[in-house]
TrEMBL record:
Gene Ontology biological process: heme biosynthetic process
Subcellular location field: Cytoplasm
Function in brief: Catalyzes the ferrous insertion into protoporphyrin IX.
Top-rank EC class of the record's enzyme: lyase
Keyword Cell inner membrane on entry: no
Protein name: Ferrochelatase
Gene Ontology molecular-function annotations: ferrochelatase activity; metal ion binding
The organism's place on the tree of life at top rank: Bacteria
Pathway(s) the chain acts in: Porphyrin-containing compound metabolism; protoheme biosynthesis; protoheme from protoporphyrin-IX: step 1/1
Single GO cellular component term: cytoplasm
Gene: hemH
EC number: 4.98.1.1
Chief location: cytoplasm
Family membership noted in the UniProt record: Belongs to the ferrochelatase family.
Lineage of producing organism: Bacteria, Pseudomonadati, Verrucomicrobiota, Pedosphaerae, Pedosphaerales
Length: 357
C-alpha cells in the first residue's frame, strides 16, 4: 500500500539578521553552482573575495528592516502555509528550504519516518529558473536518493500559467486594482541572460530568435522570461487591465553581467519621469513576501519612484496565506493523489489546467 506525502520547498532565509548568519546564508546560496554558474574555483574566489567581505553587512542591515518577532517573513509565511495546507489534507505535508532551515534533509527524514513512499514536491516558485526551481528539485532528488532511495518523487511542473495560481493572484490584488491607479508594474526577480540560454533545451531559441518569448517553442518549458510574460498576460486578461496601463521589469540584479531587462529600478524612474503618479507594483515570482519584496520594492523601490516624481507607490502583497493560494496547492495535491501512477508524464502534464490566453 502506497503512502503519499507532500513537500513544499521555498528558497530560505538566514537564521537571524545578524552579520554572521547572513554571511553563512550567502555563502551557501551563492556557492550553489546553479546560482553562480562558474567553475568551482572561480565561484569560490568570487564568493569569498568579492562578495563575502562586504555584502553580509549591507544585507544584514536590510534583513533587520523586515525581520519580525517570529523570524524571517519568508520562513514564517511558508510555515503558516504548510500548516494551512496540512489542515485540508489527509496526507503528511512537510516544508523545506533550499538553503538553511528547515533543511531538505530534515523534511525528507520526517516524511520517511512517517512511511511516505510517494512524494509530491511543490517548489514554491511558479516559474522555472535554474537558480530557484531547478536547484530546489535537484536538491530534493539528491537528498532523497541518499536518505530514502525507495521514495518515488513526483515534481509539480511550473504553474506560472495555471488557472488556480492566476485566480489566486488576481484575487490577492483585487482590493488594490479596484482603486484609482495610473500604472501596474509587474516586477519579477531577475536572472542573468546567460541562464536563459543555458536553460534552452533546443539550444537555438532563447535570446537567439527575434521576439523569442512571443514565438512558440518547446524551449518555453524551461524559459523563465517566457513564463513571466505568460503570468503577466494571464493576469491582465483576467483582471481587465488595459494595454498601456501595465509593464514588466526584473529586479535584484547582482554583479556586472547582463541580466533580464528592463531593470526594475530604472523602470521605476522611467515611469515616474514619464508622468505616472499612482503606481501599483506586483511581484508574482515570489509567493511569499521576503527581503526582495518588502525591502527592495516596498522600501528602496518606493523611494526611487517618489524621488523621481511619483506621488504614491503601493506594493501588492504576495500570495502569502491567501485562501485561494491554499486552494491552488490543495488542488495540485488532489490531482497527484487522484493517481498519477497510471498516467504517463505527458498525460500528467495535460491534466494540469492552464489559463487560456
Ligand atoms: C523567485 C525566484 C528567485 C530567483 C530566480 C532568484 C535568482 C537569484 N538570486 C540571486 C541572488 C540573491 N537573491 C537573494 C534573495 C532572494 N532571492 C529570492 C528568489 C529568487 N532568486 C528570494 C525569495 C530571496 C529573499 C530571501 C529572504 O530571505 O527573504 C539574495 C540575498 C539577499 C541579498 O543579499 O540581496 C541574493 C544574494 C542570484 C545571483 C540569482 C540568480 C542567478
Ligand atoms: Fe534571489
Ligand atoms: Fe524566450
Amino acid at each position: 500500500m502506497t503512502k503519499q506525502g507532500v513537500l513544499l520547498i521555498n528558497l530560505g532565509s538566514p537564521d537571524s539578521p545578524s552579520v554572521p548568519a547572513v554571511r553563512k546564508y550567502l555563502r551557501e546560496f551563492l556557492m550553489d553552482g546553479r546560482v553562480l554558474d562558474t567553475p568551482w574555483p572561480i565561484r569560490f574566489g568570487i564568493v569569498h573575495f568579492a562578495i563575502l567581505p562586504k555584502r553580509p553587512k549591507a544585507s544584514a542591515h536590510a534583513y533587520k528592516s523586515i525581520w519580525t518577532t517570529a523570524g524571517s517573513p519568508l520562513v514564517v509565511t511558508s510555515k503558516n502555509l504548510k500548516g494551512a495546507l496540512q489542515a485540508r489534507l489527509s496526507i503528511p505535508v512537510e516544508l523545506a528550504m533550499r538553503h538553511q532551515s528547515p533543511s531538505v534533509a530534515e523534511a525528507i527524514n520526517e516524511l520517511h519516518y512517517q512511511g511516505v513512499d510517494e512524494l509530491l514536491v511543490i517548489p514554491l516558485f511558479p516559474h522555472y529558473a535554474m537558480s530557484s526551481y531547478e536547484s530546489a528539485v535537484v536538491r530534493v532528488r539528491e537528498v532523497t536518493a541518499r536518505q530514502s532511495p525507495l521514495m518515488k518523487i513526483v515534481v509539480q511542473p511550473p504553474y506560472y500559467n495555471a488557472l488556480d495560481y492566476n485566480n489566486a493572484l488576481v484575487a490577492s490584488a483585487e482590493d488594490y486594482i479596484k482603486r484609482d491607479f495610473d500604472h501596474l508594474l509587474f516586477s519579477f526577480h531577475g536572472i542573468p541572460e546567460r541562464h536563459l540560454r543555458k536553460s534552452d533545451t533546443t539550444g537555438c531559441h532563447c535570446l537567439k530568435v527575434k521576439n523569442c518569448c512571443e514565438t512558440p517553442s518547446s524551449a518555453h518549458a524551461t524559459c523563465y522570461r517566457a513564463q513571466c510574460f505568460q503570468t503577466m498576460k494571464a493576469f491582465v486578461k483576467q483582471a481587465g487591465i488595459p494595454e498601456g496601463k501595465y509593464s514588466i521589469a526584473f529586479q535584484s540584479r547582482l554583479g556586472r553581467d547582463p541580466w533580464l531587462t528592463p531593470y526594475t529600478d530604472k523602470e521605476l524612474e522611467r515611469l515616474a519621469r514619464g508622468g505616472v503618479k499612482k503606481l501599483l507594483v506586483i511581484c508574482p515570482a515570489f509567493v511569499s513576501d521576503c527581503l526582495e519584496t518588502l525591502e527592495e520594492i516596498g522600501m528602496r523601490g518606493r523611494e526611487t519612484f517618489l524621488h523621481s516624481g511619483g506621488t504614491s507607490d503601493t506594493m501588492i502583497p504576495c500570495l502569502n496565506e491567501h485562501p485561494l493560494w491554499i486552494v491552488a496547492l490543495e488542488n495540485m495535491t488532489k490531482r497527484f493523489m487522484a493517481d498519477n501512477v497510471h498516467q504517463s508524464p505527458e498525460e500528467r502534464r495535460n491534466s494540469f489546467q492552464p489559463v487560456a490566453i
